[in-house]
Specification:
four-stranded antiparallel sheet; 2 domains; Alpha-Beta Plaits; 27% strand
Length: 308
């Protein structure tokens, strides 16, 4: 029994407000998650000996047992009592340390795929509870649709979002999440907003055409902290603003996104930036590592693999 080429999509945070901090140190957030079609892909073969083995690109400094994919498989084993194991291979397209949720998405896809392969029969709510043990971003990938998130990111409400495309820009610098949330200068008192205010804003501020990048709701409270600690990330932001683009950092960084009405418009912008990257004379585009043009997804590609 096997499943091959199983997708694990990236996410972007359309906005991210830090509204407080719990006594245990976890930060209280409000954010809107959207999946995009930049994906890692994973292969799963069932093993009868109960072992969990992972193949593929090794993340520097990460031990096998600390890999989120391995941890996800073990948590599912331990909580269902299955005697089966898995041989897992994955191919990374989502950059690490980019704020795109690649590790969390890989973990969620592992839970969903092995729940199907092992026939462990957990429903969506049960898988989301296991996902939360792995990280605050994991449950939204199991939730399976665009979501307005509160709490530490685990309180999710469905969002109806318009079809949009995104330019995603990766700087020449990664950002460890822990460094950002532990920073003394992080604003932790942004006022809360109602989900209805966010959805109404999306309607009122719908662009009249696809000639320019879209306006974005709210802000990302983590940007100022990242810019202070990671100068190459700030250089990318400054350069994108200078191109007239409404760019925003996603998650805790380092990647930025720009929203467009159509994929064609995002692709044209991607080609323009790549051209400027290749012409490196006195141009801050040299601090950009990679650029993608992506479609926003209306739901996670594995959403219907799970019973609700």
């Amino acid at each position: 029994m096997a499943l091959y080429d199983v997708p694990a999509p990236a996410k972007i945070n359309l906005f991210l407000h830090v509204t407080g901090r719990r006594p245990d140190g976890y930060h209280l957030l409000q954010t809107a998650f959207r999946f995009i079609d930049l994906c890692d892909t994973l292969d799963f073969d069932v093993r009868s000996d109960g072992r969990i083995e992972r193949e593929g690109e090794q993340i520097a400094g990460l031990a096998h047992e600390d890999d989120l994919v391995v941890r996800a498989a073990r948590i599912l084993q331990q909580n269902t009592g299955t005697a089966l194991g898995a041989q897992i291979r994955y191919r990374k397209n989502i950059p690490s340390g980019g704020g795109l949720g690649g590790g969390s998405s890989d973990a969620a896809t592992t839970l969903i795929a092995l729940n199907r392969l092992w026939k462990t029969g957990l429903d969506r709510a049960a898988l989301m509870r296991l996902g939360l043990l792995l990280g605050a971003d994991v449950p939204v990938f199991i939730y399976g649709q665009p979501a307005f998130a509160e709490g530490i990111g685990e309180i999710l409400s469905p969002l109806m979002l318009p079809e949009r495309a995104y330019l995603v820009v990766q700087p020449m610098q990664n950002v460890p999440t822990a460094n950002v949330f532990s920073a003394a200068n992080l604003t932790r008192d942004s006022p809360s907003v109602k989900i209805s205010f966010f959805t109404d804003w999306q309607t009122i501020n719908a662009p009249l055409n696809g000639l320019e990048s879209c306006q974005l709701f709210g802000r990302n409270d983590l940007e100022s902290v990242v810019f202070a600690q990671y100068p190459l990330v700030q250089q990318v932001a400054t350069w994108l603003y200078g191109q007239g683009l409404n760019a925003r950092m996603t998650g805790s960084g380092a990647c930025f996104f720009v929203e467009f009405v159509t994929l064609e418009q995002a692709t044209v912008c991607q080609q323009e930036i790549v051209g400027k990257m290749l012409n490196r004379e006195n141009d801050n585009a040299v601090v950009i590592q990679k650029v993608w043009a992506c479609s926003g997804l209306l739901e996670h590609p594995l959403r219907h693999w799970i019973s609700s």
